[in-house]
Write a structure and sequence with these properties.
With about 300 residues, this protein is mainly alpha-helical. The chain has helices at about 5-15, 25-45, 50, 60-85, 90-100, 115-140, 145-170, 175-195, 205-210, 220-240, 265-270, 275-290, 290-310; strands spanning about 250, 255. The structure holds Phenylacetyl coenzyme A (FAQ). Phenylacetyl coenzyme A binds near residues 36, 74, 105 and 206. Phenylacetyl coenzyme A binds near residues 39 and 40. GO terms for molecular function: phenylacetyl-CoA 1,2-epoxidase activity.
Length: about 300
């Protein structure tokens, strides 16, 4: 690759300019973006499944309408992100095939099951809360189409986080059994939410280069710490206990210290081990196959339109 082009590219990144689809970029930068953006898109789409599971069992019309809107938003986020990745020269079919064949990852968090209604609250509060913490800095990521997609995504995620917290507030102010459901959901979702930020910085192979290229603006550990610090007071307000005996305020550091994360569990979830992961990919493949007639009809319609236009 031409040294002059590379130097000019790096200078633009260092000056916080956005790189746009037709600009020159190193091949490794393009590959990293396709990897991260497509995996982000897959996470949004697979992420519709655990909550979609509860649409038919929401306890009231109001809760059902809120959840339906949220799950549809996640589908929209996936579509913006696939479009952003397509501007880098990859195709939708390739990305979907990578997901279905297991070549591409999606967030570990969606390999956990949603066992009861309180899980829907915990997902909004913790999973969307973690997603916002990670995505706010991505509004300033160096690739323009990704950064711009993040602006709308973050606004919608804020609504998602609030609806989850509101759902849990209703439960903790209800019957003791309802408060116990909320505590049980927090117990199961807390550690997986911390794992969403990825491996620790000293074990994160992509971080150093992604930070240099300003694809990532903050490291995995920095974002995880910010999430813990923001979330502990929210748990206190709910009257729920975070399931970590080592969690304590560090006066000197001005942050919460927290216990050791079970990284074996994280890597098993990344590898897609366990029944829930198999269920997720089976559901995505079925949705793709059952949607074939829609893609065929759209293609046939476009061919007719083009033929008419040519006539
Ligand atoms: N799960 O070197 P690093 C949402 C992989 S939010 C699975 O640190 P990087 C909203 C990583 O890909 C969730 N794999 O990698 C929602 C890499 O493998 P690779 C989605 C993970 O890229 C809420 C390897 O480990 N958000 O969907 C995970 O620099 C509710 C080494 O890791 C995003 O994707 C993980 N948790 O940093 C939807 C945000 N962590 O690719 C529905 C954008 C790491 O080399 C309902 N992505 N790995 O084969 C990012 O910010 C980054 O890609 C990180 C990972 C921080 C996830």
């Amino acid at each position: 690759e031409d040294a002059g082009l590379l130097a000019a590219f790096e200078a633009r990144v260092a000056a916080d300019e956005f790189i746009e689809p037709n600009d020159w970029m190193p091949e490794a930068y393009r590959r990293t973006l396709v990897r991260q953006i497509s995996q982000h898109a897959h996470s949004e789409i697979v992420g519709m499944l655990p909550e979609g599971n509860w649409l038919t069992r929401a306890p009231s019309l109001k809760r059902k309408a809120i959840l339906l809107a949220k799950v549809q938003d996640e589908g929209g986020h996936g579509l913006y992100l696939y479009c952003a990745a397509e501007t880098l020269g990859t195709s939708r079919e390739d990305m979907i095939d990578a997901l279905h064949s297991g070549r591409a990852k999606y967030s570990t968090i969606f390999n956990y099951p949603t066992l009861n209604w309180a899980d829907i609250g915990a997902i909004g509060w913790l999973v969307d809360g973690a997603a916002i913490m990670n995505q706010v800095p991505l509004q300033r990521t160096s690739y323009g189409p990704y950064a711009r997609a993040m602006v709308r995504v973050c606004k919608e995620e804020s609504f998602h986080q609030r609806q989850g917290y509101d759902l849990l507030l209703a439960l903790v102010n209800g019957l003791p059994e309802q408060k116990a459901m909320a505590q049980d959901a927090l117990n199961r979702w807390w550690w997986p939410a911390l794992m969403m930020f990825g491996p620790p910085d000293d074990n994160s192979p992509n971080s150093a280069q992604s930070i240099r290229w300003r694809i990532k603006r903050e490291t995995n550990d920095e974002l995880r710490q910010k999430f813990v610090d923001a979330t502990v007071p929210q748990a206190e307000l709910l009257g729920l206990a975070i399931p970590d005996p080592d969690l304590r305020w560090n006066e000197e550091g001005g942050h919460y210290d927290f216990g050791a994360i079970q990284w074996d569990e994280f890597y098993a979830a990344v590898r897609g081990e366990g029944p829930t992961a198999r269920e997720r990919i089976t559901a995505r493949r079925a949705a793709w196959d059952e949607g074939a007639w829609v893609r065929d009809a759209a293609t046939a319609h476009e061919a007719k339109r083009a033929a008419l236009a040519a006539a």
